[in-house]
Design a protein that fits this description.
The chain has six helices and three strands; from the N terminus they run ααβααββαα. It is mainly α. α2 packs across α5. The protein starts with 15 loop residues before the first helix and ends with a helix.
Length: 155
């Protein structure tokens, strides 16, 4: 990899340390996501995406979100989310609803079976987060890492 001089730096260039940090972030993210996915599938038959849908619906007002809101929150295309919700609906984890005020809008809500699945899987997921991520963060690093990730998430 070529070294950059200060003349090459700026908003359009990335230095080696930042590029290395980015690579480490991607590698860590990929590793942790694969582990969390495997643990949820093995223990509960849920994908990480399904867990995320259930979690977001449980936290939403009336345990219900518009499909468009859910797609935005999960960074899914509407087609990809439709397929995911189809699979979850067949397993009675969620249900689609239309409301009289606007029948064009489809909302998804968590079912009692979805709530039970989420409750059972939450312990596995939270233990996995601690095992694969949380224990690596030292208490004195939390404010800086949290601040950085907050800025990063917002763009």
């Amino acid at each position: 990899m070529a070294r950059m001089t200060s003349a090459q730096s700026g908003p359009e260039r990335i230095d080696e340390q930042r590029l290395h940090a980015w690579t480490q972030l991607l590698e860590g993210h990929t590793r942790v996501m694969h582990e969390l996915e495997r643990e949820l599938r093995d223990a509960h038959g849920l994908s990480l995406s399904e867990y995320d849908v259930l979690h977001r619906l449980q936290d939403a007002d009336e345990h219900c979100l518009r499909m468009s809101e859910l797609a935005r929150a999960l960074l899914y295309s509407t087609g990809g989310l439709t397929r995911l919700i189809d699979r979850m609906e067949k397993r009675a984890l969620v249900e689609r609803r239309t409301f009289s005020e606007d029948r064009r809008v489809t909302r998804v809500s968590i079912t009692p079976e979805g709530e039970q699945s989420l409750r059972r899987a939450s312990g596995t997921h939270l233990r996995g987060l601690q095992r694969h991520f949380g224990h690596l963060l030292h208490d004195d690093e939390l404010p800086a890492v949290g601040a950085f990730l907050g800025r990063f998430a917002k763009g």
